[in-house]
Amino acid sequence: MTMNQHYDVIIIGAGPAGTACALGLRNAGLRVAIIDKHIFPRDKVCGDAIPGRAIKCLQAMNPAFGAAVRSFPEKLVTQRTRCYYKGKQLEFSWSLEAYTATRMDFDHFLFSLVKSHTNTTVLEGVEVKQINSTDNGYILTTKNDNSTLDCTLLIGADGVNGLSAKRLAGYQMDRRHHVAAVRAYYTGVAGMEDNCTEIYFDKKYLPGYLWVFPIKGGLVNVGLGILSAELVRHHIDVKKAFYDFIDRSPILKSRFKDAVPVGPLQGCGLPLGSRWVQMSGDRFLLAGDAASLIDPVSGDGIGNAVLSGKLAAEQAIRCFQSGNFSAAYMKTYEQELYRMVGAEMGRKAGVLKWMSKMPLLFELAFYVGQHRAIRNFIK
């Protein structure tokens, strides 16, 4: 890599938030680079659910992006979610289109859109080890060969464990707003329906849940997520809990009798949007998991990642048009994001709290949810 390359915008992280941002900057006339420590395609531990919000945002940026994701061959279309608790079940039908696909395939697809539809400089297999601020932006030093890149505006989309959130916003994990999750792939799970995702609850592990999501080709994504504060409080090993959860459920135990794991059980951390963290400052913005935007109830991060990437691109364009990169001006990005998802996050944070502290209310909600009107309200 050539030393001291300058860009107007550098995006760290080529997941859904970073790629959405690069797509949003395609016609801005700016020199943009996107950096990721991995070479794509790469795996990513996730539930692999692609919600309607992500598709809607891609469509809004460019109808061609919406058409591309709708014709993406590795997806399954999901129309329903079925929830199970104590022998009862609730089923929800979704009005917005939604898909499932492995993150290896979906993230690679989004990255391919960046390569084919933008002039973004793509730097794969390049890890940033140091971020230093200057009067005019940031200097990034790479781990690979100590090469440096500098930019006027930095967008951190490298996840909760990435360098951006820690270095730029001083991120520290709060177990009350963080989920520990594990995920494995299986084949041979009995009774799967391609257009239906499944959620299972167990009083022992509230406010967590186990998901069973169909993936194209007979693959099934199975995972368990539990609030980190509850893991510590009850001394729970989340990997052991995964197998215990399946064993405790007569339905799951029967359906997994002949199931075969494909690869190991892997873990990840999910920074919830149940608290509003710093997402911007002088000459920087954070997007996606780096901004702690995961839905506190569903655990979905892709929808808000794509949305925040889109909004970060719009803010970046405003900054260059006005010549204003101050922390005060960057707050416009946070305000717009809060306007779009803040109230929703607040409501769901409340649901997470009463699921944790008042499981009887959760049981009551499941009971009254048998009525269609209540089900529509919950949805």
UniProtKB/TrEMBL annotation:
Q: Which InterPro entries match?
A: FAD-bd, FAD/NAD-bd_sf, Geranylgeranyl_Rdtase_fam, Geranylgeranyl_reductase, GGR_cat
Q: Which parts of the sequence belong to the Digeranylgeranylglycerophospholipid reductase catalytic domain?
A: 181-249
Q: Which residues are in the FAD-binding domain?
A: 7-169
Name the SUPFAM superfamilies for this protein.
Answer: FAD/NAD(P)-binding domain (SSF51905)
| Molecular function GO labels | FAD binding; oxidoreductase activity, acting on the CH-CH group of donors, NAD or NADP as acceptor
Concerning Gene3D superfamilies, the annotation shows: FAD/NAD(P)-binding domain (3.50.50.60)
Q: Which NCBIfam families match?
A: GG-red-SF
Protein name (record): Geranylgeranyl reductase family protein
Origin species, per record, is Chitinophaga agrisoli
